[in-house]
Amino acid sequence: MLPNLQPFFADLPDPRRETRNKLHKLEDIVMIMLCAVLGG
């Protein structure tokens, strides 16, 4: 069982503009990116 890594990324400042089009939280995007890099 892997530990939940999202709390480590929760404090990252979000450089994106505030718009209605922001559908996903930054920590979700970072977790997807991390899984993609680790999975090759």
What best-fitting shape do the alpha-carbon axes yield?
Answer: globular
Helical content, roughly?
A: 40-55%
What is the string of SSEs from the N terminus onward? HH
Number of strands: 0
Distance between the termini: 20 Å
Measured on Cα atoms, how large is the radius of gyration? 12 Å
Proportion of beta-strand residues: under 5%
* Biggest β-sheet strands, sense, barrel: none
Computed structural class:
mainly alpha
Low-confidence stretches: none
Average predicted local confidence, pLDDT: 86
Secondary-structure map with pairings?
Elements: H1 6-9, H2 26-39
Q: How is this structure best summarized?
A:
The protein is an all-alpha fold and 40 residues long. The chain has two helices and no strands.
Overview of the molecule:
With 40 residues, the protein is mostly helical. It is 45% helix and 0% strand. It is built from two helices and no strands. The protein has helices at 6-9, 26-39. The longest helix is centred in the C-terminal third of the chain and has 14 residues, at 26-39. The radius of gyration is 12 Å and the shape is globular.
